[in-house]
Amino acid sequence: MTYDFLLSLAQAIAKGLLTGMVYGLMALGLSVIFGVMRIVNFAHGEMMVVGMYLAWMGLEYFEVTPMLALPAIAAIFFVAGYALQRGLVSPFIGRPEHQQFLLLLAVAILLVNACLAIAGPDSRGVQLEAQFDSYEVGPLVFDAVRLHAALAAVAIALVLWLFFTRTRTGKSIRAAADNHLGALVVGLDVRRLYAVTFGIGAACVGAAGALMITIIPVTPFLANEYTLLAFVIVIVGGLGSMTGALMGGLLIGVSEALAGLLFEPSLKSMFSFGLLILVLLLRPQGLFGRSGR
Amino acid sequence: MRGLSKLGRRLVGDAPPRVLWSLALLLAVLLVAPAALGKYWLSVLILVLYFAYVGQAWNILMGFAGQLSLGHALYAGLGGYIAAGLYFHYGIGPWAGLFAGVAAAAAAGAVVGFLGFRFSLAGVYFALLTIAFSEFTRLAFDHWAWAGGSGGLFLKVGSGSDLWNLRGGAVMFYYLILALSVGAFVLCRLLLQSRIGQYWLAIREDAEAAQAVGVPVLRAKMIAIVLSAALTALAGVWNAFYYNNLFPETAFAMGRSIEITLAPIIGGLGTLFGPFVGAVVLTGLGEAFTDVGEVLKVPGIKQIFYGLALLVIVMYRPAGVWPWLADRLGLKERQR
Question: Which A residues 161-190 touch B at CB under 8 Å?
């Protein structure tokens, strides 16, 4: 255990934590949607990739940096998510899982191939000045873009937490999630709340995409990987739990970074899937979830 | 002889004569089809039968026993890789190798099933477990030198026809997959008519009630997944020797698992004809959109049409095409 090794270990953990926060924001979207309306968004990674492409286009065609474009992208995603829920998903709530799966699979195919048709199969990245900056804390070096992305992700998660705990709509959504019938009885407009929830879930993943593009370039083929990654994170953290999604994101971010450092980088998702299997079997409510499914 | 006629009676059951005549006609057409079809249409028909067969195998677990697997590529991949690996490294013919491949897939199915059912994972949680095992295996094969790693495994393409080593042209593979499809259809019909089939349907409809009236739930689910995995592995072996190459990225891909599920879902989950009807619809659409894509020359346009078609089908025929079609044709399959 040399000093250099420990330093690179700490460096990898720091990097993993920062990326993990963006992962967490992405997974938060999936978790919110599932937690409230019991719909598994099989198009989640595809939405993420669309967010990344929008941010790339913002810089490419309008010269707006991803960080500045983020609110606009989140707003677009909110509206699109709201409309998607109202138009397509709504009748499928409570239907058999395979029908929901097929519906969102069709949405996923449409989204990813629309990206392919518009932007082509080549990898698209953004060039930012901040990508050359870094912050030094003691011996540790933090990439500026990664740090900014992580901070933004935390800020968005905080806003969401305030929304769900402090606002009337947020509380109503939680009420509808806890007890669908009860919410209907007390006169909540559950259909609208569901649409708002899907909009929020979509906005989370869109924002996460805008942050992610500052860290890595995008191709349409990443979509499937992100869908799986989001599944792993929310299951490990606890499906339907907000803290769970964020903590799961950090955990997977760190485990990926460590696997990349200590073993072959290509083995990194093997760890994630191994962890997924263990959590599913031993603690299906997730590491941070409430018990009882 | 008596056993055989009993089996025959069970197979025919209460099916109306015109269903039997239609089936006989369909089989006759499929038997002579290679003589009439060109190379292209034969390859399309092979694709239809392949998806009908794997769909039938998947349908046992999901359509009959109600357990959603999104990781069936695991079983097809294991079957194909092991049979192809034994042939490639030791010259062991596929007819022997398939036993090893099927056994491995059945064992994998037993592991996934036992863990999933023993820890009572249901619905989405079980589906995610199947995905996790399939992805885990994909990454393992990526790093396994015997199986060629991520570079893939290639079988030598011989000249002439050698049924013993499954080296030959499309017609041979056509009859093989036709035999598999017919066999799986007959098997599924017999299973549904038997006690285990009734157990599965009871579990699918209400597992707790089934348990309460004494259905051996765990055992019945285990039989479903092992059988489904073993049949899927046969398709994997066929696939490996038909295409002569295997890559972990495709053999164990989630996309492969998903495409296995589509024909039965689109056709009609839990029905005997659903997988075949779904395979016809999906393959037909796929080929038509390929032509459209070649005209339009926009990347991804084929998949966009495909996605739209799936969307339309799931929105307007959520129970699948076959139950609706059967109703139209007056061949209503008994509600199961």
Answer: none
